[in-house]
Amino acid sequence: MAGGEQRGAPGGPERVALKKEIGLVSACAIIIGNIIGSGIFISPKGVLEHTGSVGLALIIWVLGGGVAALGSLCYAELGVTIPKSGGDYSYVTEVFGGLAGFLLLWSAVLIMYPTSLAVIALTFSNYVLQPVFPNCIPPYNASRILSMVCLLLLTWVNSSSVRWATRIQDIFTAGKLLALALIIIVGFIQIFKGNYEELTPSNAFNFWMTPSVGHLALAFLQGSFAFSGWNFLNYVTEELVDPRRNLPRAIFISIPLVTFVYTFTNIAYFTAMSPQELLSSNAVAVTFGEKLLGYFSWVMPVSVALSTFGGINGYLFTSSRLCFSGAREGHLPSLLAMIHVKHCTPIPALLVCCLATLIIMLVGDTYTLINYVSFINYLCYGVTIIGLIVLRWKKPKIFRPIKVNLLVPITYLAFWAFLLIFSLYSEPVVCGVGLIIILTGVPVFFLGVYWRNKPKCVNRLIESMTCWGQKLCFVVYPQGGGAEEEEAPSARSWRPASETAARK
């Protein structure tokens, strides 16, 4: 059935499908737009702090892009072999079963994406408000309110139209690339003027501290936060036009481009700032603009605001599809597997993502939670890529339009093991809390998914909530997929007792 076409059996419920509206340009914009958010304006300080020298910090940035490229190659194979939206969650569920998939989904919905969204939204509001409060930190309430308004606005846009959401992503991705291009060009002008003292080998590798292996692991995690989002196109595979061609193409275009931009942006920073100045700055891009752009220094906070606005849109777009996929597989309430009759957008899933982010903004210290997010994120990446190797062994004859050399996932997993082991050694409390967050999903899985014969009152409550949700959001079950065909036994336990009543 063509994307967006509506169909239903005579007298039966109306059925729709997610639209295939994401072409190659928009696919590249989703990857680049999700990667380039607040990270390039936050992480340089953390990477430099843990490496102890300019030269080693730049090497970490290049290696970060290389490892993201290795992971992307693995995800390209998984994305065309298991062509479902949902990314990591869909692949882990397919390979390792429902419990493993649910734990990944649980940690993502509960902490990873709401926290990342909250951090990006707060970064957006701080940079927007900086001209209004030039000599102090913007007030707490003003920052929170502006962040919430931005989040609600983009939730409405994503609920109204897939095309609007992707157009916003295209425009703001172009804007943030132009902003970073400005930084890089100014940096090259500085180099041509001879202002590259910090980049000469003698100065670049002049260590003011000797980094331990644990420090290097933490520096790599800081850099990996800036690269996070490289796998997000896999969350919207079903909305991608010709995914077997455009998924790998978008990856091959986007990851090298982002690595180039990140590396040369950091080189540009060091043409204007000494390592000590960068470490003392709370807004690296703003400090860079103040030192080199003079009257036009206002361009930097505006550029960061544009970058983070596009990042919020991208995270909302992809994280809502993760909720949608989880509900369709029966791991979340079935209401979240519904899409709008006319707009073909997953409105209930978008509202849940928005609500979770608002709660994190109000009650959580987002900048502390980001440490847990980085650890959980990397843990999920590794488990997913282990799944690629297991799938090769379990289903050697399955059709694979792309098949990477086994050295690619093995090399990635070697870096992954290094990071996790030394992260556990260096930050045992952070990693321990991250593991606890994941494991809290075990009882939820057994109560919500595995327990099939729930009391009638529970089934009636779920049925009632589903019906009210359909009426309020004008949503129906999409055509095809796990919501109505060949459900796993464990999936049915989330369904209402009366499927017919829930679908009216």
TrEMBL record:
Keyword Transport among record annotations: yes
An example Gene Ontology biological process: D-alanine transmembrane transport
Domain of life: Eukaryota
Transmembrane regions listed in the UniProt entry: 22-42, 54-75, 96-122, 142-159, 171-192, 212-230, 251-272, 292-318, 339-363, 369-392, 404-426, 432-451
Subcellular location: Cell membrane
Keyword annotations of the record: Amino-acid transport, Cell membrane, Disulfide bond, Membrane, Transmembrane, Transmembrane helix, Transport
Any one GO CC term of the record: plasma membrane
Pfam family, one: AA_permease_2
Region (Disordered): 483-504
UniProt membrane topology term: Multi-pass membrane protein
InterPro entries: AA/rel_permease1, AminoAcid_Transporter
GO molecular function ontology, one term from the record: neutral L-amino acid transmembrane transporter activity
Gene3D superfamilies named among the record's database cross-references: Amino acid/polyamine transporter I
PANTHER family cross-referenced by the UniProt entry: AMINO ACID TRANSPORTER, ASC-TYPE AMINO ACID TRANSPORTER 1
Name used for this protein in its record: Solute carrier family 7 member 10
Species name: Accipiter nisus (Eurasian sparrowhawk)
